[in-house]
Structure formats: structure tokens, C-alpha cells
Amino acid sequence: MILDAPGDLGPITIMALTAATDVLVPVPAGAMELDEVPKVKDTIAKVQARLNAELVMSGVLLTQVRTYGGHTSVLAREVGKQLRVDFPGGDLLQSYVRDDMRFREAPAARQPMAVYGLFAVIGD
To answer: Is 118 within the bounds of a domain?
Structure first.
């Protein structure tokens, strides 16, 4: 079962971590998001110590990675480098989720991402 909790580290996230067996931490490839990583690590450690000793860190997934001609952006590479420092031991997954404008366009077109077409035009 996958529990998708908000990133605000509030009560819903704490309850989801308490009920979970594993946690996958998605981190957007942005400079400001890196400031939140220590808070996430601290929250997971507190849940492990107080509420769910069985909780395991499954990995960190870099998301919203901008690619240009098969190469990742400088920002994404720098964020990845910092995440390797923050999560030593191979927690940062080799896979990443690239940024795609269709993720933003699909809700505006009121269609699920799986259905939204590659060449869809909003307003048709």
C-alpha cells in the first residue's frame, strides 16, 4: 500500500509515517527544497524513535528534474550532489522524475496525467 502524505510534516504526515513500513522521500530539484531536507530527516528519526521503530528509509527520489537534450540541468546536478551528502550510504536513488509541463497542464485540462495527450491544447 502506498500512503501519499503532504510535505508539511504535520499530523497527517506523522500518522502516515507511523502506519508505514517504508518511506520514500521525494525531493524536488530546487534550491529552496534542500532547506527542508534536515526537517524531513529529523521527523523520520523522531517517528522511528517514538512511534514506529520498524520504519525503514527506502530511498530519496529526486523529482522535477529539468532535462535539456538528454542532460540534466546544473541545478538538478547540484541538488543531487547535496542529497548524496545529506543521505550517505546510497539512499539517493539513481532514477529520477523529470519535469514535464504536461504534469501542470493535465489538471487544467481536467484530465488525468495517464490520459492527457502529448499534443493536447488547453481550451479545446
So the answer is: no
How many angstroms from the chain centroid is the CA of residue 37? 11
Residue range(s) defining the domain that contains residue 53:
11-108
Is 69 part of any domain?
A: yes
CATH code, domain with 57: 3.40.50.300
**d(C-alpha 103, C-alpha 82), whole Å:** 26
pTM (two decimals): 0.78
| Whole-number pLDDT of residue 111 | 82
Question: Is residue 66 situated within a structural domain?
Answer: yes
The residue ranges of the chain whose pLDDT is under 70 are: 1, 117-124
Q: How many domains does the chain have?
A: 1
* Number of Cβ atoms within 10 Å of the Cβ of 8: 9
Q: How far apart are CA 56 and CA 34, in angstroms?
A: 21
Nearest to 80 by CA among 95, 62, 105, 67: 62
Which sign, positive or negative, has the C-alpha torsion 111, 9, 23, 41?
positive
Q: How far apart are CA 33 and CA 105, in angstroms?
A: 23
